[in-house]
Design brief:
Oligomer: single chain
Low-confidence stretches: 1-13, 15-21
Number of helices: 18
Mean pLDDT: 85
Shape: globular
Largest sheet: none
Helix content: over 70%
Distance between the termini: 19 Å
Structural class: mainly alpha
Length: about 475
């Protein structure tokens, strides 16, 4: 699908809409920087990573190093493409242009599904926490309150989303920095006896659960990084998309890797990996309790609540913008493209309604419908990353040939590291296929991908026929 003119934001598939349907540009550089920095720092790190530690032991540090490197490469690819051609649909738009409608449809709607499922999971967890504090309101009542609040805030102006995420992310980043400082002091023996390497090499060694544990921990670490792509979606609504997304990607990816890897290194050095409290209460709470920090459990519950609300807010935003981009390109019901005062109101409402329906499914059918939805969402990010790799391979070569001046951000070691990243993703799929749970996820995901790719292929064929007049 060669092009003679490189597309810009003005002639992208989302262009051509009247002035009333144009999204606003209310996000600033500080918003994007914190969205990029705090976007993936969620409950998965503060609580969910304990499951990974229980599965892989101290080797979880190596897993986070590997998946962190993978995420850095994916973000570099996204940064290259989004800086050259900013778009609300980000990788979905680029995939459509470079590969075809089937790729844009598949990656876009899979990402939307992943984010909406995330909204449901996060709202449910946040409601449970609030119910423990204010018990006269049931958990589902808190879920409804959070859904209405964030839906309303996303319907008003994009700057509200930016401000919420800025301060949410500031809380999360401050917490991690404080945790790392306290952890290093604990390792040095400031709070008592220095642990040395006793917890790293004892309790079964550095690889206590073998290959099976590594495989189980791998899937946990991958899911922990999902959602970082939202910054390339948000960049299109900033005052200078190309410059802002380039800055956000350059400054954020390595810091995120340090936060994750550093946190896991502190945890497995200070406490035994097989301590039941690591998986039950979360690794952060366990470490702070070990160090004798007062009210550690309450402090971390507050931080986890903030992390859940932050992720919920970001997922509503990201899913609504992706849906808006898809329907603007004819890949969904047109009524979702309605924009009110610079906000895709119909897409926001649709994403919130789907998320709330998923919450209800979690209450009524927790082990069937809701479990199936979460399984599909768990694989969605790998599908998206695979398409990102294929898209970047084609787009980079075309830009080098037609508009090299647009390459303000360049993928490292192109094309070798892109191919290596794609091979790593395929390897993760292979690891999943080796386990019964992973195979179920893959089978369910394959059906959804096939349906989306088929719908996108039909649109691609209709467009080709319309263009040729046949």
């Amino acid at each position: 699908m060669s092009r003679t003119v490189p597309r810009s934001p003005q002639n992208s598939p989302e262009a051509g809409q009247n002035s009333e349907s144009v999204l606003s540009h209310g996000l600033k550089q500080r918003h994007l920087s914190m969205i990029a920095l705090g976007g993936v720092i969620g409950a998965g790190l503060f609580v969910g990573s304990g499951v990974g530690i229980a599965a892989a032991g101290p080797a979880i540090v190596l897993l986070f190093m590997g998946t962190g490197a993978l995420v850095m490469l994916i973000m570099r690819m996204l940064g290259e493409m989004s800086a050259a051609r900013p778009s609300t649909g980000s990788f979905s738009v680029h995939a459509e242009e470079e590969i075809g409608s089937w790729a844009g449809t598949t990656s876009g709607w899979m990402y939307w599904l992943m984010l909406c499922a995330g909204v449901a999971a996060e709202a449910t967890a946040a409601g449970t926490i609030m119910h423990t504090w204010v018990s006269f309101i049931p958990a589902y009542g808190w879920v409804a309150i959070f859904m209405v609040f964030f839906c309303a805030s996303n319907l008003t102006a994009v700057k509200n989303f930016g401000e919420f995420e800025f301060w949410f992310s500031a809380v999360k980043v401050t917490t991690i920095v404080a945790f790392l400082v306290l952890g290093v002091l604990g390792i040095l023996g400031v709070f008592g006896d220095a642990p040395g390497t006793s917890h790293l090499t004892g309790h079964g060694g550095f690889f206590p659960t073998g290959a099976a544990g590594l495989a189980a921990g791998l899937l946990t670490t991958i899911s922990g990084f999902a959602g970082l792509e939202t910054v390339t979606i948000a960049a299109a609504e900033s005052d200078n998309p190309s410059r802002n997304v380039a800055r956000a990607v350059r400054t954020a990816v390595w810091r995120i890797a340090v936060f994750y890897i550093g946190s896991m290194a502190v945890v497995v050095t200070l406490v035994p990996w097989n301590d039941p409290k690591v998986a039950k209460d979360g690794p952060y709470v366990t470490v702070l309790d070990t160090l004798g920090i007062p009210a550690a459990g309450t402090i971390m519950q507050i931080v986890v609540l903030v992390a859940l609300l932050s992720a919920m807010n970001a997922n509503i935003y990201g899913s609504s913008r992706m849906a808006y981009s898809l329907v603007s390109r004819g890949q969904g019901p047109r009524f979702l493209a309605k924009v009110t005062k610079g906000v895709p109101a119909a897409a926001v409402l649709a994403s919130c309604l789907f998320g709330f329906a998923a919450v209800i499914a979690g209450i009524v059918w927790p082990t069937t419908v809701f479990a199936w939805l979460l399984n599909i969402a768990g694989c969605a990010v790998l599908v998206v990353w695979s398409i990102v790799c294929l898209t970047q391979l084609k787009m980079r070569r075309r830009l080098e040939r037609e508009a090299p001046e647009l390459l303000s951000v360049r993928m490292w070691g192109f094309p070798y590291l892109t191919w290596l990243t794609l091979a790593a993703i395929l390897g993760i799929f292979a690891v999943m296929a080796a386990g019964a749970d992973g195979r179920q996820q893959l089978i369910g995901t394959a059906f959804v991908v096939a349906a989306l790719a088929g719908a996108g292929h039909l649109k691609q064929r209709r467009d080709r026929q319309a263009a040729t007049g046949s």
